[in-house]
Amino acid sequence: MKNFLNISLKAKLILLITVISLISTIVGLQLVQKYEHSRIKSYLMSESELIADLIGEFSITALIFNDYDGLDDIFKKAQTIDEISGIVIFDSSNTAVSAIYKDDNWNRLIRFHNLPYRKDSTVVGDNYLIVNKKIIYKGVEYGKIVVLSKYQKFNLWINQLNISVFVVLFIVLVITFILSLIFHKVITGQIEELTKVSGKILETSDFSIRLKSKNQDEIGLLMKTFNKMLEMIELQNHQNELSRKVLHDSEKRYRTLFDLSPVPMLIFNKDICKMYNNAAVEMMDFDNASEMHFKNIFKSNNPDSYNSIFNNIDDNLSSSDDFYITDKNNQHRFVELFSVRLIDNNEKSLIVMVLDITSKLEYEKQLQKLNEELEIRVRKRTEELQITLNQINEQNYILNLKEKELHKAKEQAESANKIKSEFIANISHEIRTPMNVIKGYSDMLLKRIVNSEDTKLIQSIIYNSDTLLSIINDILDFSKIEAGKLEIVPDLINISNIINELKNAFGQRCKEKGLELIIENHISSTSVILMDGFRLNQILMNLLSNAIKFTNKGFVKLTANIAGSDKEPSKLILSVEDSGAGIKAENLEYIFDAFAQENWKNKIQNKGTGLGLTITRKLVENMNGKISVSSQINSGTRFEIVFDNIGIPGEDAKHLEISTSYDKVDKLSQNIYSLVIDDYDLNRIVLKDKLEDFGINVYEAFDENSTNEMLNDISFDIIFIDLILEEVNGADLAVSIRNHPRHKNAILIAYTASMSYNYDNNIFDGLITKPIKNKELNDIILKNFSISNESESIGRDSLINEDEYSLAIDFVSNNIEPAFESFSKNYSYESLIELNNVFMNNETLSKISLIRDFVSRLNQYRIASDKDKILNLLNTSKLLKNQLFYLKHNI
Q1: Could you read off the pLDDT of 435-464 as tens digits, one per residue?
Q2: Residue 144: CB partners within 8 Å, gap ≥ 6?
Q3: Under 8 Å between Cβ of 102 and 92
C-alpha cells in the first residue's frame, strides 16, 4: 500500500482503471458462466427425463403381461442414443427384470443410490445423470425405470464456455490498458501543470504567476481557486509591507517622543528595566539603567506601595507617592510614580513615569507649620471659651456623674439578684435531692410499720418534709418573679376538678385541727376556662394553707363563682375566708410585701418564709387578675380574687370529666419493664420501690456504660432518666436511647431536683420532680399503661361488645394514627377537625370511655393551640390501641 501511494498519479490512474475493469469483467463472466452451467444442466435433465418417460410407456405392455423378452427390442433401439449408458426396469416388487449397461460401474451406482426403493428423483453426479421414475398406467404402478446418462456432453459444453470466458477476459484487459494510456492525460495533464506551478512559486516566492485552464470540471475549478488564492496572498503581502513601513515610522516617532519627553520614564519587563529616556538619566544617579531591578532604582519603606505600582494588573493608571530616589548629587528626592500596563506581542511590560514631589512636600511642610500656628491661636481662644463653658456645664457633669453611679449601683444590684437567683436554684436542687430520699424512705417505712405510734412519727416526718418543700418552692418562685422568669401557661381547665382536689388535700388537715372546711362551688361541673391551672391551684393552696395555719377554731371557707353567661367571656371570682384572729387595719397595706408577718403572730408556732402572700399577689397579677383582703380583729380574714375576661370554650370541651380525686393505679396486668438511670443510689432505691408498687419490673443503671449494657440485654417499656448525671448529660443520654433500635418507641421520663431545668419535650414523654410525688408518678403510669383502673373502665363500658371495640380499634388505625403523621409533618389542624367530626358522627365511639377521653383531651389542646401536647397525645395511639385490644379480649 505504501508503494502504491508513492507512485505517480498517472500510474495510479492507469492501474486503478485496469484493475477496476478487470474485476468488473471477471465478476460479469462468472455470472454468465454460472448461468450457462445451470441452463445446460437443466437441459440435460429434461432430455433424460423425456427418454425415461418414452421408454417407460413402451415397457408398460411387457410389464403387464410379464413379457420381458419384448423389452430387449426396446433396449436395442435405445442403445443407439450416445448419451444413454444404461437402462434398468424393475417390476412392482422392485426386482430388476431387464437391463442393459455400457459400463459395469453403472450397476454399482444403482445399488449405491438404492434407486428401486426411492421415489421419483434425478441424481446428478460428477460425470453422470440418473433418472428414476415410476411406470404408471391408469393410476396403477407396474414398476420403475432407471435411465443412466453420461455427462460428457455437459463437460464439453462447460470447457468450451471456459475457453470463451478467458478469451473475452484477455481482450477486455488489453483494451482497458490501451484506453487508459490514451485518456489519462485528460485528467492528469492539468494536475501535473498545477504541481509544476506550485513548485515554481515555492522556489521564487513569486505570487504573480497564474495557471491557465479552459476546463469547467472540478480540476478546472481547483485551478481557478488556486489562482484566486495567489491573488489574495499577493494582496496580503502588499498590505503587510505597508504595515511594516507604518509600524517602523510609528516606532521611530514613539522612540523620539519617549527620548525627548521632559517626564522621566522607564519601561520594565518582569521587574527588569528594558528602556529609559534622557529625562530619567538627568534625574537619577545612573548612566545606564538597563537590566537594573525596579527596587534598585526606586526605594520605599512601604511594601504595599511596590505592589500598587509594579503589580498593577489593570489597564488603568496607578500611582503612589511613597517612593524616593538618589539623584546625581547623592541626595534623596521624593517622587510620585505613575504606572500603566502595556502589552506588546503578547508580552506584558510596565511603563513607569516619575514626578519629583520634593518641592511639593516642602511646601506642604511650610503650610502645615502655618496651620499649627493658627491652631495655637484658635486653641487659646477656645480655652478661654472652654473655661466659660466648663463653668456652665459643671452642674451637668455632676448630675451625669451621679446618674452613672446610680446606673452602676443598679447593675450591681441586678448582678447580685442574678447571683442570688442562681444560688437559690442551685441550693434548691441540692436540698431537693436529700428531700427525695427522706420522703421516699419515709413512704417506704410507712408501708412497712404497723405500730400506730411509729406511724405517727413517720407521718410527722412526711408532713414536715412537705412543709420544708413548700418553703423551698416559695423561695424559688419568689426568685423567678424577681428575675422576671415566671411563666404562665394557659390551658383548658375545669375549676370543679381543682376545687375537689383542694378539698381532698386540706380536708384531713382541717379535721386534725378541729376546723370545718366549707366548699361553696357555684360553678357548673361542665364549665371549662382557659387559664394556667397549676398556678391557680398554687394560689388557692397558699391562701387555704395560710387560713388553716392562722385559724385555731371555727371554719375555713372556699367560694367559687363565675359572673355572667356560661358561653360569654366573664369574671371568675374566688374567695378564701376564715374565722381566725384577723389582721390589724394598719397592717393590711403591707400584708403582701415580701417577708412581712404580723407582729402579733406567734412566729415560733407559725413558721414560714413570709413569701406566700407576696407570691400569690404576683401570680394573680401575672394572670391578669386582682387580689384584695379584708379583715377584722378576732373576726377572721377574707381574701378575694377576681379574674376578668376569662374564656369559656363551651361545646368544644363538653367531654371533660370531673374527678373527685386522682385514680390510684392498682398493680398492672401487663408485664412492664422499667429502667431507672440515676448516679445517686438512694434516689434509685426510692423510685424503684414506688414503681414496684405498680407491679413493674425495675432495673437500675448509674452511668452511660451500665445504661448501654442494660439496653442491649433487655427491652424496656419506660425509662426514667435523671437530667443531671455526673459523667453525662441526661438529655444527651436520652437522645442516644431514642436512636437505639430496640428502644426508639420506649417512654422516656425525665426527673430532676432542679425546678429551673428546661427539658426537651420532643425527646421526653414527661417530667417529674424530686421529691417524687405519688400523684405525679401515678398519673404517668395511669396515662401510659393503666386503662383507668381496668375493672372500673370495663364496668363503665360493660355494654360494649367485641364488634364495637373492633370499630374503636379501626378508628385509631384509620383516623388517629394518620392524624399523627399529618400533624407531625406540617401541624395541620384540618386533620384534627376531621378526626373530631368522625367521632361526633359515630354514637358507638362516644360510648367507649377511652376514645371519648382521648378526643376530649385532643380538643382541649387544639383549642389552646398547644402543638407539643397535641403531638404527645397523638403519639400514644399505639398504647390506646393495645388498651382497646385488652378490653376486647377480656369482656
Answers
A1: 767 777 777 776 677 666 667 677 667 666
A2: 89, 90, 94, 115, 116, 132, 133, 134, 135
A3: no
CB 728 within 8 A of CB 702: no
The confidence score (pLDDT) of residue 165 equals: 75
* Neighbour tally for 30: CB within 10 Å: 11
- Distance in Å from the first CA to the final CA of the chain: 102
- Cβ 77 vs Cβ 100: under 8 Å: no
Q: Could you tell me the three cell numbers for 624?
A: 391578669
Which set of grid coordinates corresponds to residue 562?
Answer: 363565675
What secondary structure letter does DSSP report for 662? Answer: P
Q: How far apart are CA 457 and CA 449, in angstroms?
A: 11
Label residue 450 exposed, middle or buried (CB < 10 Å: 0-12, 13-18, 19+). exposed
Cell of 761: 419535650
Residue 207 CB neighbours (<10 A) = 17
DSSP state letter for 589: G
How far lies 125's CA from each of 34, 45, 48, 129, 207, in Å?
Answer: 17, 12, 14, 6, 77
Specify whether the CB–CB gap between 705 and 736 falls below 8 A.
no
Distance CA 762, CA 780 (A): 17
Q: Coil, strand or helix: which one is 249?
A: helix
560 pLDDT band (50/70/90 cuts)? very high
Q: How confident is the model at residue 425 (pLDDT cuts 50, 70, 90)?
A: low
- Per DSSP, helices labelled H in 812-876 are 817-826, 829-840, 843-847, 849-863, 867-874
- Look at residue 508 and tell me whether its pLDDT is greater than 90: no
DSSP string of 439-464, one letter each residue: HHHHHHHHHH---HHHHHHHHHHHHH
Cα–Cα distance, 703 to 680 (Å, whole number): 10
Measure Cα distances from 322 to 292, 364, 874 in Å. Answer: 20, 15, 76
Of the candidates 45, 213, 242, 19, the one whose C-alpha atom is nearest the C-alpha of residue 124 is 45
Cβ atoms within 10 Å, residue 743: 20
Residue in 42, 44, 40 with CA at minimum distance from that of residue 32 = 40
What does residue 796 show for φ and ψ, rounded to 5 degrees?
A: -65, -35
**What is the number of H-type helices and E-type strands within the chain?**
26, 23
Residue owning grid cell 504567476: 209
Is the pTM for the entire model greater than 0.85? no
Residues 6+ apart with CB under 8 A from 748: 718, 719, 721, 734, 737, 738, 763, 764, 765
Side-chain half-sphere CA neighbours of 666 within 13 A = 8
For 350, the grid coordinates are 510596565
Q: Which three cell numbers stand for residue 467?
A: 412543709
In Å, the largest CA–CA distance within the chain is 176
Q: What are phi and psi of 267, to 5 degrees?
A: -115, 125
- Summarised one tens digit per residue, pLDDT across range 575-598 is 999 998 888 887 877 787 655 554
* C-alpha to C-alpha distance for 147 and 56, rounded to whole angstroms: 10
Cβ proximity of 10 and 184 under 8 Å: yes
- Contacts of residue 316, defined as CB under 8 A and 6 or more positions apart, other chains included, come to 340
d(CA 613, CA 624): 17
Q: What is the DSSP letter of 597?
A: -
Residues of the chain by 3-state class (helix, strand, coil), percent to 5: 55, 20, 25
CB 199, CB 226: distance < 8 Å: no
Is the separation of the CB atoms in 745 and 820 below 8 Å?
no
Q: Name beta bridge partners: 574.
A: 560, 641
Backbone angles phi, psi at 314, to 5 degrees: -95, 170
* Rama region for 658: left / alpha / beta (φ>0; ψ in -120 to 50; rest): beta
- SS3 of 112-174: the string is HHCHHHCCCEEEECCCEEEEEEEEEECCEEEEEEEEEEECHHHHHHHHHHHHHHHHHHHHHHH
Residue with cell 430532676: 752
At 609-652, the pLDDT tens digits run 566 788 888 888 888 889 999 998 888 899 999 998 776 654 44
Secondary structure string (H, E, C) spanning 182-196? HHHHHHHHHHHHHHH
